[in-house]
Amino acid sequence: MRTGIMGGTFDPIHIGHLILGETAWQQFELDRVLYMPAGNPPHKRDREGRASNEERLDMVRLAIEGNPHFELSTLEMNPEGYTYTYRTLERMKKESPDEELFFIIGADSLRDFDTWMMPERICAACTLIVACRNHIDKTTLDRMIEGVRVRYHASIYRLDSENLDISSHDLREFVRKGRSVRYYVPDSVETYIKERHIYGCCEQ
Ligand code: ATP
Ligand code: MG
Q1: CB atoms within 10 A of CB 147
Q2: Cβ–Cβ < 8 Å for 156, 130
Q3: Which own/partner contact pairs does 53-58 have at CB distance under 8 Å and 24+ positions apart?
Q4: What b/e sequence results for 86-103 when a residue is b if at least 16 CB atoms lie within 10 Å of its CB, and e otherwise?
Q5: Residue with CA nearest ligand 1 atom 7
Q6: C-alpha triplet 16, 56, 48: angle, nearest 5°
Q7: Model confidence, pTM
Q8: Nearest residue (CA) to ligand 1, atom 19
Q9: Pair 28, 4: CB distance under 8 Å
Q10: Where do the domains of the chain lie, and which CATH numbers do they carry?
Q11: Angle, in degrees to the nearest 10, between helices 187-196 and 53-64
Q12: Interval between CA 16 and ligand 1 midpoint (Å)
């Protein structure tokens, strides 16, 4: 089984996350892609202008509904909150040794990769798939990828994808200011945000 993993805060999930998962699924011939929302540590829960853990889960569930090779995973939503990626991947490997794991990230996450906990253990447990973001040019991204490959003996590849100018941060701002997020998120997620008044949304 070849399993892709899209980790993130998904606050809210948007079409960038969905297109990334679908593109990786196709290019790397994955059997499934797990959408794995990160747990928030207790002090970061119930923050003003942000969705709760439950709401983030609901939005992921709504967004991936209908795609037979997308699944929700709550492995990183433990009661204490935060879970380190290397621990999650090692746990998955232990429970399912024959499963091949592909961790899908954007170029901004790769830039921070050295600061993640135990990057060498992450690289030992999975193949990294990196997508373009913030208009980084392919040569620069390839150089960063090569750096991580050498530093951590990583199996790491660039996803052949378009730059997608969209972030959860911007969408939270859109909602707060009353600007429509239609088509940036699935309709069901847009409706959910409106109904629950998430991100300071005032229903129009
Ligand atoms: P925020 O603005 O709150 O940081 P985000 O849009 O970056 O949200 P995250 O949940 O932080 O979304 O991202 C999860 C993963 O998806 C990260 O690896 C990130 O790099 C990647 N990602 C998110 N949006 C895009 C995008 N538009 N293009 C490429 N990668 C993306
Ligand atoms: Mg982000």
Answers
A1: 15
A2: yes
A3: 53/77, 55/192, 55/196, 55/198, 56/9, 56/10, 56/11, 56/12, 56/13, 58/192
A4: bbbbbebbeeeeeebbbb
A5: 167
A6: 105
A7: 0.96
A8: 106
A9: yes
A10: 2-165 (3.40.50.620)
A11: 150
A12: 7
Mutate to test the pocket of ligand 1, among 20, 102, 174 (most ligand atoms within 8 A of CB): 20
pLDDT digits (tens, 9 = 90+) for 139-172: 999 999 999 999 999 999 999 999 999 999 999 9
* Residue in this structure with the two tokens 């829960």, named with its chain if needed: 45
Helix ranges restricted to H, the chain:
15-27, 53-64, 85-95, 107-111, 119-125, 138-152, 168-176, 187-196
Residue with tokens 């990626």: 85
Q: What is the 3-state secondary structure (H, E, C) of 123-167?
A: HHHCEEEEECCCCCCHHHHHHHHHHHHHHHCCEEEECCCCCCCCC
Residue with tokens 């960063």: 144
Amino acid letter for position 5: I
pLDDT of 20 strictly over 80: yes
